[in-house]
Amino acid sequence: MRSPAPPQQRIRMLLEVVDDEAELTHTTEAFGERGWPVRAAEPAERPASPAPRRTYLVAEVRLQGARVRAVRHAVDDVSRMVKRAGLGVWVRDAQLIRAPREVLVAYHVHRTNSRDGDGLRARALRWWRDRGGADTGRIVRTVPGTGPEEVLADLSGRRFGPEPFDAAAHGVRVPSYADPRPPEHDESPEERRVRWLWLGAAGAGVLVAWICGMALHWVSGWWRLLPALLAFAGALPMGRTAKETRDRSLPVQLALGAGFSLGIGALGAIMEGRSQGGPGMWLGGLALTGIILFTGFGVWMALRGTFVVRHSAWIVPLGIPVAWAMYAWLGDFMHAIYLDEFGIPEGTVPLEGFWRYPVATLPMGLALASALIFTAAAGWLRHFHVARGENRMYAVSVTVLLALTYVLTSVIIGAERAASAAGQAADAAQDGRQPDGYYGIQGTLLCVTPVRKDPVPVERGPIPRDHAVLSFGSSGDWIWLWDPERVRDLDDRSEAGIPDHPPAVFAVRRGDVRLEEAKPSADAQSPAPCPPATGAEKTTS
């Protein structure tokens, strides 16, 4: 039987069932397998005019996700389940159960000091006690409005736990961060809405004060007066929602809120003064934070209570070797794409196997980010009951699509990055500059000089004598070289419509030539020059 995930929403349903003992048994078993309790409906819950040969049950369906569309999702799930099982069950009534919410105040029991007074030592002991330093490790929770005297009387009149309560040696306190009179207690729906509006306004005021503090560095002159005044726009909501001043007079609330606004604005000004990043950096940071929160919560909501989480003990060890093999293959693929842009065959360039992993890190990371965002979107849809998580075909299709998206995204990003890096290296070689390395592949401009007067065998020759060629090294007897000047000729011939032009890459035996590093080009817009050389060569195909 599947282990049900902790529910967030409970929906009570009135089920109309065929009045048959076997049908009732099958219905109870089917709901029990899903972790949904079933009982017989009480007389007050039954319809006033029941259908003939029908009986009624009450089931409690438990779902994860938001309250929005939860009842509709539960009814659809039950309807699909009874249809697959072939049961004579119909949902006649469904209602969302809202559990009563009770706010409690926590009193911490602490040891008292018999030498309380007004001296410095007594004040230090009281400060230490108020910060939890003298707590005994016992917490008593009670309804708001209960005073410390009532809590002490309650503790003195009963015994609980191994350490008895002694009114002469113990006391109770409410932590400074807690609210002894939480406003959630006994508030009406209208009061709750008003309180949330004030909290939202206070949060917006914090953000406005922070932005206005940074804006002092973005404007000059009298324009600085505008953000300086707007920074106090949220002073009243801040003072009204703080537990220390919510019951005080309006001037006190405004004074406390103005102090908060001033401190937050000063913090924003200090941060902007140190970073000097401008509004674009901070807006980008806020957007990135929002994306991270959206992705994190979405992935959690997509995976909780799923097959992947329940069987992660064998899915993770099985997936690591597959991901590692994909990692290595992508690195080799990107190196091959880079060399192919120059027409150099794969395997003819010396390359350490270690570099296949750094080159594939960024494409794999970007692909993983896109896959996580896709998963997060599915998780949010699941949370609001738009995507039916119980549909196996839906889960399988999403998993397959997610895997394909991850693989294809990593391959496409890797190929584009490798081709872009090769293009930059080619441009540098054509301008007479030494190109940058690419994860273990280092191109070098070399001057090629035959070491003998006899003709030199050349694959796809001839050998250029007046300018340098690009080399990435050789792992065998032959070395492949890329001629940047020949690329210019290829472009000219292509524009002229000449189809049979020689390729830009050629190969020679390493023992037949001498390779010397070329000096940079003087004008930085033409291939690096080479000193004149004498010799003969023979072109072979």
How do you describe this structure in short?
The protein is α+β, with helices and mostly antiparallel strands and 541 residues long. Helices cover 47% and strands 15% of the residues. It folds into 5 domains: 90 residues, Alpha-Beta Plaits (2-Layer Sandwich), CATH 3.30.70.240; 69 residues, no CATH class; 88 residues, no CATH class; 126 residues, no CATH class; 75 residues.
Describe the structure using short key phrases.
single chain; 541 residues; alpha+beta; Alpha-Beta Plaits; four-stranded antiparallel β-sheet; extended; disordered C terminus
Assembly type of the shown chains? single chain
Main pleated sheet: 7 strands, mixed
Radius of gyration: 38 Å
Largest sheet: spatial strand order: 13-8-10-11-12-9-14
DSSP helix fraction:
40-55%
The total count of strands amounts to 14
Order of helices and strands: EHEEHEEHEHEHHHHHHHHHEEEEHEEE
Number of helices: 14
Unreliable parts: 1-5, 495-501, 535-541
Strand percentage: 15-25%
**Number of domain units:** 5
